[in-house]
Amino acid sequence: MTQSQPAYKRILLKLSGEALMGDDQFGINRDTIVRMVEEVAEVTRLGVEVAVVIGGGNIFRGVAGGSVGMDRATADYMGMLATVMNALALADAMNKAGLTARVMSAIAIDQVVEPYVRPKALQYLEEGKVVVFAAGTGNPFFTTDTAAALRGAEIGAQVVLKATKVDGVYTADPKKDPSATRYASLSFDEAMSQNLGIMDATAFALCRDQKLPIKVFSIFKHGALKRVVMGEDEGTLVHA
Ligand SMILES: Nc1ncnc2c1ncn2[C@@H]1O[C@H](COP(=O)(O)OP(=O)(O)OP(=O)(O)O)[C@@H](O)[C@H]1O
Ligand SMILES: O=c1ccn([C@@H]2O[C@H](COP(=O)(O)O)[C@@H](O)[C@H]2O)c(=O)[nH]1
Question: Which residue has the CA at smallest separation from atom 8 of ligand 2?
Fold first, then answer.
């Protein structure tokens, strides 16, 4: 049965950096970012408070080929800076679409974006602004999925929504194993014990400990974000 009210008052939306490429080889595809912003705008119109963590895989990954031979921490800082670029592009597209977005960075770059300050982020959310968290956790050796879990817990989000390139969590990576089947739901312990690569173990463990559920769904499926927010059957729920 479809409910008339959103299932959540405050969400932490993890947007895939790689998804921003659309059909391009790297970077930010304009039509794709505009479409993503339309999906976000739809849920803000329902009165849902939205905070976003954006990935950086479309520009740089610390563990990727381009960083071979580099000091890992240096490469990771480059990856975090990539997320700042994505955050700026995303907030710009949001502001153009009529939303009010604020970027907050975990790494100090004061001339470019304001620093992450938790009470300020909470104030923005209460005012109905979309807060885009940039630079991940601010620490190397982590990922933006872990940043999503961390910020989600800090702001008291009721759920982490991982908007990615696949429509849920599968028994194996569906891009490599066509026989993989999708879970409707599974526990954190199941996801971690089976090493399911959809998210890293640090992110799963933090959400498990904080009893913060995760919903994984496809950002390419039109209306999927709204259906998730309305509590409809979409994607995969990972729960305590
Ligand atoms: N068990 C699994 N179920 C679903 N997807 C999986 C699984 N194992 C691995 N994957 C892969 O994980 C990918 C999503 O995670 P990944 O961290 O690479 O991307 P993202 O978070 O969407 O991007 P970014 O890091 O750029 O923000 C999917 O595209 C899928 O191919
Ligand atoms: O807290 C963090 C978040 C990210 N990084 C680095 O940035 C890239 C891009 O992030 P994705 O989550 O892969 O999209 C990541 O590969 C790390 O190199 C980080 O160091 N700390």
Answer: 79
